[in-house]
From TrEMBL, chain A:
The keyword Ribosomal protein does not apply. One of its GO terms (biological process) is spore germination. Keywords: Membrane, Transmembrane, Transmembrane helix. It comes from Mesobacillus selenatarsenatis (strain DSM 18680 / JCM 14380 / FERM P-15431 / SF-1). The chain crosses the membrane at residues 295-317, 376-402, 422-446. InterPro entries: Spore_Ger (IPR004995), UPF0353/GerABKA_families (IPR050768). This is Spore germination protein GerKA.
Automatic annotation (TrEMBL), chain B:
The keyword Lipoprotein applies. The keyword Lipoprotein applies. Belongs to the GerABKC lipoprotein family. It is a lipid-anchor. It is found in: Membrane. Its main location: membrane. Pfam families: Spore_GerAC, Spore_GerAC_N. Gene3D superfamilies: Nutrient germinant receptor protein C, domain 3. Keywords: Germination, Lipoprotein, Membrane, Palmitate, Signal. One of its GO terms (biological process) is spore germination. This is Spore germination protein GerKC. GO terms for cellular component: membrane. Residues 197-371 form the Spore germination GerAC-like C-terminal domain.
């Protein structure tokens, strides 16, 4: 059962309560009903059904499957003797459990269980008859690709784990469950491969998850901010994916995967900077093409961050570096612009961000109009009105385009935002300011860690063996070792030997 | 608290210090692309500057300003008074000097160019026969920007291996090196176009003579490894079995295109200052002005031998000419310095020794291909 919790540990840390303080279940029927009503504040969907033979069934209408409740619980219990053991015997639901404390009973009701009270017994039988409100499995939207499996996680934790288990039919795949959030009591699962993932790393993750004290976790992207190393960093330090194949690839590399109930994305840890520029499709295509694409992505990141800033610096301070053939067209289009280059660049960058943000929140049909208005009308009109130079339009468009090549949405956002301080530095101090900004950025990146492991690995610290699957990807036989980053217990994935025939 | 104050201080610095950087916004700068220096009668410098015009409405894409002053920078300041934009020399491509200026001494002006960090080391330097002011001011309908014309002409010929390169960096290197003298191409205004006439021989920083474009090719052959451009050579008809025809020219002219060349200079004897110059030249025969049966290996061998003699005598003449003028553009002094222990060579010492030096020229010439006609 996925909802099974490490009750003692979790509850102790969460609620600072001792076992002794827990309230026992009232033996008397009326008392029990009253207790339940009190605890759930006489909720409108709270259904209390008293059977002829003495059983009292309590459940929430909205969470339970009527058909299952009737067939497997109600009709079975009608002829039974009113005792917990008899009830257990008759209920034909796979997940049943016994509870002694009021708190646990309430908890199971909230998870879609029907609780059965037998008069005179301080024990409650609960049976899960909850509905599984599930979206069907769809294609991945954010990480879509041509090759590879076309399936994405959905909002159900059980489905997501089953997807991973389908890829990794391995008894060593461990699943640890946690409950997080004082108010939401969200289920969180930690998955890893025993015998490959490093025990210290697992323990570190376990501690981080357990020590979280929040009222609710609604999505894995929120959980990731609670468990990452540095909340002040601009770069995300852990990756999220909606692809089960990618999650499995991580687990196979000795990483851990954290799933949150109700969240379509799963967290992988630890991660490195370069991993944000890799895609699962790189594994499917030929290695030369994969290498080309990865280099292209890193190049476009650099272009996206620095291109506009270089334009501003060159035009404001360093006219010397502009090639002479470019001087005249550049000067001619600039001579009509009334603003200094920094204002011009910031204006246009903001405009692109406005377009993107407006497009992201709009329905698709309106979005198309947006593209036309933004791209064509505003773009050409701005140049013709002498608002910006047309060369800057090209530069801004290229760097905006380049920022969308990053396979990871979160990293793409960071890259777009980073442009602004760099443009300002370039506009204030030219290349000198740009270098200062670059140094800050580099130092910032080098200081980051992901679950206690260096974020810039395998480049710093240099681990040349791992370069084989970093910015480049070598043929399949060469990338048969797990990255040192995860400190895997077994370094070698497989021995590669091609069949001679 | 202290930490917060520090952060506030940094934020303040970002705002306040941004005023300290001097802005040079592109469209507010008057970009000099070519500058020419003349000497006036009262020994002042007349600087002629070609500015890049980036006004789309202007008819001409360049603007020419000239100013007179005692120094080159002073002349620029003077010219600033005539310019709507601040004059900047960061886009300077060519610096021209009139013969008078170079005869009086080039180094002050060249050094100023090198001292300015915004000026590229790859700026071409050249000598103008006559007045640079007139050369830059000449009108021609064919091109709109004289500075582009001169720059492209020099660039094309230097990259095409026709004449030795003379960038600011190379000229200054040769000036400060004790055993070699700089050379500069000479330009001449010729009916609306600008022609490269040859190279100026320079002793220390003063112009002492001129060589023509063909001799410049030999100079390039000696100084640079690997490759040189094409050359036309004339040799005597004698000894060749040619088809006699009345209108045949007296001389046999051959055009050669160098495929590969290698030159090697050695000091044979340090007492007699005897140098040896070996040039190995492999070339392709491009054109020949008379009918000669090239399929016959005998004739080809004969032709090779004749050409070898011709090149040897040409190079010997060039060396003699340079030695008589006192300039050493070949760098024999550097070979001497390299070969002789504790030579303690200075430019003065070398210039006093140089006229006594002797050079044995050995040419190995080979025609690799005679064309695809065969």
């Amino acid at each position: 059962m996925f909802f099974k919790r490490k009750k003692d540990e979790v509850d102790n840390s969460m609620n600072q309560k001792n076992l002794v303080d827990k309230e026992l279940i009232p033996v008397d029927k009326a008392d029990f009903i009253q207790k339940m009503k009190d605890c759930l504040h006489d909720s409108a969907d709270l259904n209390i059904k008293e059977l002829q033979n003495g059983f009292t069934l309590i459940f929430l209408d909205t969470l339970t499957d009527k058909k299952m409740l009737n067939q497997d619980v109600l009709s079975r219990l009608e002829d039974a003797k009113a005792s917990p053991n008899e009830a257990l015997k008759h209920i034909t639901v796979s997940s049943t459990s016994k509870h002694k404390y009021v708190e646990d009973v309430i908890d199971s009701i909230l998870h879609g269980a029907v609780v059965v009270h037998s008069p005179g017994h301080p024990v409650i039988i609960s049976a899960i008859v909850g509905t599984q409100e599930n979206r069907s499995l769809t294609r991945p939207e954010n990480e879509s690709q041509v090759l590879g499996p076309q399936i994405a996680f959905n909002e159900s934790l059980a489905t997501n784990i089953s997807l991973i288990r389908r890829f990794l039919t391995n008894p060593n795949l461990c699943n640890e469950s946690f409950t997080l959030g004082k108010q939401t009591k969200s289920a969180v699962s930690l998955l890893y491969l025993k015998g490959i993932a490093d025990d210290d790393m697992i323990e570190r993750m376990r501690e981080r998850i357990k020590s979280i004290d929040v009222d609710g976790i609604l999505d894995s992207s929120i959980l990731v901010q609670l468990i990452e190393d540095n909340s002040f960093a601009i770069f995300p330090q852990l990756l999220l994916t909606e692809r089960p194949d990618r999650a499995c690839a991580w687990i196979l590399n000795g990483k851990m995967v954290v799933l949150v109930d109700g969240s379509v994305q799963v967290i992988g840890a630890p991660q490195t900077f370069i991993e944000f520029f890799q895609s699962m499709e790189d594994e499917s295509v030929r290695w030369q093409i994969a290498t080309f694409l990865r280099v292209l992505r890193v190049f476009s990141m650099i272009v996206s961050i620095f291109f506009t800033a270089i334009y501003v610096a060159a035009l404001t301070f360093h006219y010397e570096i502009i090639p002479q053939t470019l001087l005249i067209p550049l000067g001619e289009s600039r001579s009509r612009v009334p603003f200094p280059p920094i204002i011009e660049a910031l204006l246009l960058e903001t405009m692109i961000e406005l377009l993107r943000e407006a497009g992201a929140r709009l329905p698709t049909k309106v979005g198309q109009t947006m593209g036309i208005v933004g791209g064509i009308v505003v773009g050409t009109a701005a140049v013709e009105a002498g608002f910006t130079s047309n060369i800057l339009i090209i530069i801004i468009a290229v760097s905006a385009l380049a920022s969308f090549t990053t396979p990871n949405y979160m990293m793409g956002n960071v890259i777009r935002v980073l442009r602004f301080p760099l443009i300002i530095l370039a506009g204030f101090w030219g290349f000198y300011g740009l270098m200062v900004g670059f140094c800050f950025l580099l130092i910032h990146l080098l200081r980051q860690s992901s679950l206690g492991t260096p974020f810039m690995a395998p480049f710093y610290p240099p681990r040349f063996e791992d370069w084989r699957d970093s910015i480049i990807r070598l043929p399949i036989g060469w990338t048969n070792s797990r990255p040192l980053q995860t400190r895997p217990l077994d370094r070698v994935k497989y021995r590669y030997q091609k069949n001679k025939k | 608290m202290r930490k917060q104050m520090n952060k506030l201080l940094i934020a303040m610095l970002v705002i306040t210090l941004s005023g300290c950087a001097e802005q040079k916004t592109l469209e507010k700068m008057g970009l000099l692309t070519t500058v020419g220096y003349d000497l006036t009668d009262d020994k002042q410098i007349l600087a002629t500057m070609v500015l890049l015009q980036i006004d789309p409405e202007a008819a001409q894409s360049s603007l020419i300003l000239s100013a007179k002053s005692a120094t080159s920078k002073g002349a620029r300041n003077e010219a600033d008074l005539k310019s709507p934009k601040k004059l900047q020399s960061g886009q300077l491509r060519v610096a021209l000097f009139s013969e008078e200026v170079v005869q009086a001494g080039l180094i002050n002006l060249a050094d100023t160019l090198a001292r300015d960090p915004s000026i590229s080391d790859l700026t071409y330097l050249a000598v103008v026969e006559g007045s640079t002011n007139k050369l830059l001011n000449q009108k021609n309908e064919q091109f709109s920007d004289i500075s582009q014309l001169i720059y492209k002409e020099l660039d094309q010929n230097i990259k095409g291996e026709k004449i030795p390169s003379s960038t600011l960096q190379e000229v200054l290197h040769d000036f400060y090196a004790p055993g070699i003298d700089p050379i500069l191409p000479t330009l001449k205004s010729d009916g609306g176009i600008v022609k490269i006439t040859g190279m100026a021989l320079i002793k220390k920083d003063k112009m002492v003579g001129k060589i023509n474009a063909k001799e410049a090719f030999y100079l390039k052959l000696i100084n640079d490894r690997y490759q040189a451009g094409a050359i036309e050579l004339e040799i005597d008809n004698e000894g060749f079995d040619l088809l006699e025809s009345p209108e045949a020219p007296v001389k046999l002219a051959v055009v050669l295109d160098t495929i590969h060349s290698k030159s090697d200079m050695n000091l044979l004897s340090k007492e007699n200052l005897n140098f040896e110059l070996k040039v190995k030249l492999q070339s392709r025969l491009l054109e020949i002005n008379q009918a000669l049966d090239l399929k016959n290996p005998e004739y080809l061998e004969q032709l090779e031998k004749k050409l070898e003699e011709k090149i040897t005598s040409d190079i010997e003449n060039l060396i003699k000419k340079a030695r008589e003028s006192g300039a050493d553009p070949f760098g024999f002094g550097e070979i001497y310095r390299k070969s002789v222990r504790k030579a303690n060579l200075t430019p003065e010492k070398w210039h006093s020794m140089y006229p006594e030096s002797k050079v044995d020229v050995k040419i190995e010439f080979e025609v690799m291909r005679t064309g695809v006609v065969e």
